[in-house]
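request received
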Amino acid sequence: MIRIAIANQKGGVGKTTTAINIATAMAATGWKTLLIDLDPQGNASTGFGIYAADRIRSSYDLLVDQAPLVECIQPTSIPGLDIVPATVDLSGAEVELVSVEQRTARLRAALADHTAHEICFIDCPPSLGLLTLNALTTADTLLVPLQCEFFALEGLSQLLQTVERVQQRFNPDLGIIGVVLTMFDRRNRLTDQVADDVRDCLGGLVFESVIPRNVRLSEAPSHGLPALVYDHACAGSRAYMSLARELIGRLPEK
Amino acid sequence: MIRIAIANQKGGVGKTTTAINIATAMAATGWKTLLIDLDPQGNASTGFGIYAADRIRSSYDLLVDQAPLVECIQPTSIPGLDIVPATVDLSGAEVELVSVEQRTARLRAALADHTAHEICFIDCPPSLGLLTLNALTTADTLLVPLQCEFFALEGLSQLLQTVERVQQRFNPDLGIIGVVLTMFDRRNRLTDQVADDVRDCLGGLVFESVIPRNVRLSEAPSHGLPALVYDHACAGSRAYMSLARELIGRLPEK
Ligand SMILES: Nc1ncnc2c1ncn2[C@@H]1O[C@H](COP(=O)(O)OP(=O)(O)OP(=O)(O)O)[C@@H](O)[C@H]1O
Ligand SMILES: Nc1ncnc2c1ncn2[C@@H]1O[C@H](COP(=O)(O)OP(=O)(O)OP(=O)(O)O)[C@@H](O)[C@H]1O
Ligand SMILES: [Mg+2]
Ligand SMILES: [Mg+2]
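response:
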């Protein structure tokens, strides 16, 4: 199973929206897909209409209680897409994990030898704490959603430094499969400027596909549906399908 | 000194933009103002043009090394506004604080008996971990920036539950001075719907002043200036000045 962490410690840059829609697009193209919600806010779980009461087991059980992965996986309404949901007790996990052995390797151990899915996405919270470190220690590669704003650009170097640290200490094989520009607003001069800066310094790492600012993407979760299902023809959905095609081109053969 | 935490665990809702501009507006109206940057991203510090090399002491020194507050404060380019900047080592503070005594009361102890400023704002990171808990344990009151989006609304109940927990265990006097709607986009139907929901359930807690989505607010930090200085006549600046007037109306006499 290919494991992809979707991370950026800057808040509100489109991590969850990317996780929900790229996972849906991959399932739609025939990949057996697993989404792990590692954010105590549980937005990825809500985005599939799985309300708090329906989250039987969660990523908290996986990390802290070391429950078997197969017990924490539940189906979504999307064929070929399963999820490990998040609950609010995950916000206590960071403190609870501090004093355990191998505290950054808990998730990696939980996913070891799992072959029922072909690809797994991990939605991370907006921080570089133990939850995100678990995701980076587990992942084969990292997908970075980046908003074309000044503060978001500032955070990129902190993220890349953390990746380096994780490569040295916990996961030498961790790569970066790409950076996707999100909430792109053509009318906004700053957006273009930041996008040019990012492409200048990261080159081909930046996906060609750009996710435009599109209100349908932010409406979809209130219906408990990914945008690809809520409105598959909208600009946002088309952009995520194009991103999925590009991502597949960067993955090893199934 | 009145201590106000600016917090919301949802990422990217305008905490830092609110902290920078409300602190500037308060200083401009004659309040001796202190801003404490408690986010490892250090966006509030950057927003005043204080680059990493110029951050002599920081909120990390305050919390972890218990350095005296007066040594960690440095001036900004705004008369009447000082700052305790943040550095990236703050992201290690959460793990380092777990095993110390009174780990949520470190900031409160650091600010005790400080009278050189009349009001203090604390910019929080997007999480409910030990840094935000320190801010909530220290604060007299909480200012909540809220983006009018579905995921942001979902997070509000988690935040209010955390506030209740902090009131019971660490800071019985913690109040909520208000909720400010941010990035308000009149053209977006979802925005209006969420705003109506919020006003229905929180009533007068929601400030009348609404911060519109305004590109000048996101351009200002790249010039190292608060929007109130970068473009004092833009819609964003006028909204923050209106918010400051409303906030003053809710504060005890100076
Ligand atoms: N391309 C887009 N166009 C319009 N709105 C978007 C877009 N992408 C995301 N949004 C909205 O912007 C907000 C932030 O996005 P999202 O929650 O996915 O970011 P995040 O990085 O996961 O945030 P957090 O840091 O809190 O986890 C959400 O309300 C979402 O619906
Ligand atoms: N009213 C607004 N109009 C347009 N852009 C805004 C507005 N408020 C904030 N922004 C921009 O949106 C982004 C998110 O805002 P900001 O960084 O202040 O949020 P935050 O809650 O502090 O984020 P984090 O959770 O990462 O700390 C920034 O790039 C900022 O410049
Ligand atoms: Mg998210
Ligand atoms: Mg911030």
